[in-house]
């Protein structure tokens, strides 16, 4: 076994490609560090905005009380409140001064401010303007930072701190890197198998145990070296800048209806160890399958099924202490909020040792066979049939190069990744609901404080007018009730109603309860309103009526369907952005059904990446035959016209792309059904329109746009048709460029440049009349299907039908031009 390990390690270290990994990793660290350093400052801006608002509120309260003191005087309790407000103002000034200097070590001043606020709220006369839950969490945060002498630091784009290390860990030690490393290992094994390396080892009287453990040990060594290099590179920024103590920086983790603070170091310990153990599990399985002579497809199928089963068990039964899937997923609330992760890692390490013993027995024993006969079959000699010889020829070339299998694996990874992303968002639904509730409560409290100050000013004005009337010897009618008190009372009721939702977050009926509560806080129907209604309000109400008529359960979270007109990106100022962002968070839709997953796949415009994947890895052109293997000379010597070769390649690209996409999508779709069910095909989806075509269209005068509804199933069918048109056009473009150019890779690059440029230009100048004829505009699949492109282009002709026709016509035109194009053959 030592000889094999030495032989393999020597061969791998001689390869120039193995040294590209640390270089690429270091380059990634530098790029991410550079990006974060230019964008860092979100936490500082957030703190500054928070305390600016608090300073403004405190000054308004002080001004109101000083005015009252000049007019009618203050009671002792009010005088005490004024003194506390003045002290709080000084603390806020100190905090803002430090923030303006770039010093975020403000925990001590913030604690002093919080203490004064709590004293202030304990007096008999006060106007509370902060959420008690938020204040409690701020206190815990400040106390933790003060304990370790830490400043506030950037969390969204961390820079030079342990939070940056955590961000890198989540990139380097992710399921994606596991997938890629396993893919590299498998291709290396297949390459060695093709070179008869195993027969060479057996000729030298080496046993199966020596051979396969000789492979396992170097692979594990590479994994551990990868972990070591990635950890060192990730820790370099905080080490070189002296910010190692930021490993104690606390981060928020939602557990039920409560936010818990967890220090960063728990992630930094758990992630690389857990990732390494999980990869070791997969390598043991891989080596056992190598011994069974499993081909690459079967190998990935078996491993994927085992991981999928573990993931399904986690979804259906919750956290299980014996399930290894928690090494790379769903570990934060269950393990990191306590010290259970230490016992869990020890348990998984023990399980790994037991699995190693079992794997040793399987590799050592000659009689154990888990394979079906097909796994041990050798490659069959190619025999062409009478029909479709050229198509078979193209398929054989791509298949023997591994392009088809590699494309299938990446397609499964991409589409399956969307399934997992959608499901993970659905699983964290309670956390998002809690944050939405607390954000809404903070907004209520700010509004409440505003109207309380207005009520105070009204009472003061009433008292002043009464005093002036008494001095003039006149009688004055005094209102029995402050008219602003009713609004304050409504806000208090609204706060209490939303507060009651926190206890229902983990209940199965929470979504319905949340919608009912939020709907009860909204005004009546837009039809009864005298003012013009926005498209969001109108569409939300009309959609709700359709859902009730058809008996369809709405997707959680909120009772509104937030239209693109209310997207935060369309905000006019920062305050407007905050309102729109809060509105969006309260109404973001979540589900984990198959149809919802496909909807998100289209909404995220993943098809563009899939099509570029086909161009990069799978599709073929005549240029591929010119270099580096001039098989075009072989084709030219046969009674086959180059026109037939061109048509065959075009047809092969179209058929293979459609087939692989259909097969992989169908299988992943079935997986999504197992996770979240089929979904509701008749779910009504909002469709935008620039002009009214039919009577059932609604008009929003506020947004100057029409809208109507179509079923989700109908829209997904339209998406499929548009995708076929996209494949048709892109295939014709790629085939034409491949006919014109000499080099296949140059054809790929040129195709990419044309597609990206056409897409960017078409969307940047979207309002031009010529954008209607730009086929690249219609690659934004879902925005074309739901009609939003017509709104952006201010042109009703930019729609699904036009896009499909233009893509097919332009694709046919490119195909014919490529067919007629003649290029002189090289001698």
From TrEMBL:
This is ABC transporter permease. The keyword Lipid biosynthesis does not apply. It comes from Solibacillus faecavium. The keyword Nucleotide-binding does not apply. It comes from the Bacteria. The chain crosses the membrane at residues 17-35, 168-191, 212-236, 267-289, 296-314, 341-363, 404-422, 604-622, 650-675, 706-733, 745-766, 800-821. Keywords: Membrane, Transmembrane, Transmembrane helix.
